[in-house]
Design brief:
The chain is mainly beta. Helices cover 11% and strands 46% of the residues. Strands 9, 10, 11, 12 and 13 form a five-stranded antiparallel beta sheet that branches. It has a four-stranded mixed beta sheet with strand order 2-8-7-5, with no helix packed on it.
Amino acid sequence: MRNFRRISLTAAALLFLGWMGTASGQVYLNYAVNQPAPLEAEAGQDQLICPGDPATLGDNPAAVGGYGGYSYQWAPALNLTNPTVSNPIATPTQNTDYVLMLTDSLGCTAYDTISIAIDTCIGISGMAGVNAFEVFPNPNEGKFTVSIDLARQFESLNLTVVDLSGRTVFAKLLTQPGNAVREQITLNGLSRGAYFIRLEGEDLQLSRKMIIR
């Protein structure tokens, strides 16, 4: 008896829909499709590092969208701690472009690239005649002081701040600095991250990493 009632109710519902379609000429059905966002690989922001420094590849997260169950493959695999994880550590010896191939559980793929550039980063230990090179506070919020003590006199020095892509965000020619640099710098509107402070003069090239938080 239960089956008969269920069939009768189903038939009645179908007859009602048919009548509605005949009466109005239109039948509206509301439905939702649960589909994830497109698969995207996120290899991370380009970086500028000193020779021998490590660089972490991949954003956090390095995979967005798709159907989950991600697998990662970085190329080239040379100088990577593990080319099959989302955030390997790279220690390249030259400028290198790393490509991330991302695959989800359905076999869909996405690609992204990160460039790691090597800076000269000549510091005090690699340059005679430099007594001190300080940046404080470090990290900072865009306002800091550069303090450099040199063993000899200089008629001019170029002080610059560059981002990880090598773009100059601050530049100043220091005239008659003597053997000491004391410069207060305020950088407004810069993104958080690492920057390099460079000092260049006759037979002099210095670089210090700074973090804006």
